[in-house]
């Protein structure tokens, strides 16, 4: 009942004000809990935005669409932004940090029950040099698997060593093979797929949990083209989208039982999972987990220690070639105008976020 009611309310609101809504394309790998709440509880609509969720197939594609203006905003791993900005001087800016590595695990097919079982096997990744690859390599190295002991799974269509974003990798892992029948063995999973993997009829083994080894870790972040900072007025669609996400994130953090009920209903509707299921319990727990979840950061503040972990992991893999030997990371990671991280968008959004009407009950 709860999920249906929430969805109906959102649809009703869309119908009433549809003519006035401004289109806004938000690219992301997964529907985060924060996005689910903003979308299902009508927060974007309250900000006059008709938000399209664009599922990103792989990080290269997703950030290219942000830079060419196809996407207005991308929620993705902050390592992508660090890479594009410091190695390629790309004009993109981090608005804030959404999570600390939400439910990131190394998972296997049922026949792979330990990290050791991955020795000599191909492992599925999104990109051979970004995203979670550095985290994956770190975990494997701690289990005495140096890079020479495994490969990255080749994609049968593109012949690159890239399978794609987490939703694609989860589908392949659950199927036990790539679409062409090539067997698969393991990959990194994140929210909401970690919970889903554990709730399959034949659950997929959790081989290692990232936060056991690297924490805090700055993971998903809200990213926009730097030009979006030219307009920080309340009329800016980027400011309004940020406000809706901020309000949703605060709502997710609420301890009020009625609001928790609404958050759970929104997550269930967005992900198409059963209300009152143990899977929904697992997803809500992951989204609100201390350190790794979406409520670990207050109002999207970037965790500076978590960001140093991101830089360390990338530096350990010699993946800052474009930045040069004398690159000053300390200066470059200071938040400010023109910097990688710019808090002005969040500051502009915060007052607006407080005015967004929130449901008092979804029962
Ligand atoms: C990323 O996705 C795009 C769009 O689906 C696809 O054309 C491209 O080949 C993918 N890139 C890689 C490296 O797989
Ligand atoms: C990096 O990009 C900025 C903004 O587009 C530009 O002003 C600057 O000159 C670029 N720096 C380098 C080293 O290319």
TrEMBL record:
<keyword id="KW-0732">Signal</keyword>
<feature type="signal peptide">
    <location>
        <begin position="1"/>
        <end position="18"/>
    </location>
</feature>
<dbReference type="InterPro" id="IPR015168">
    <property type="entry name" value="SsuA/THI5"/>
</dbReference>
<protein>
    <recommendedName>
        <fullName>SsuA/THI5-like domain-containing protein</fullName>
    </recommendedName>
</protein>
<feature type="domain" description="SsuA/THI5-like">
    <location>
        <begin position="32"/>
        <end position="154"/>
    </location>
</feature>
<dbReference type="Pfam" id="PF09084">
    <property type="entry name" value="NMT1"/>
</dbReference>
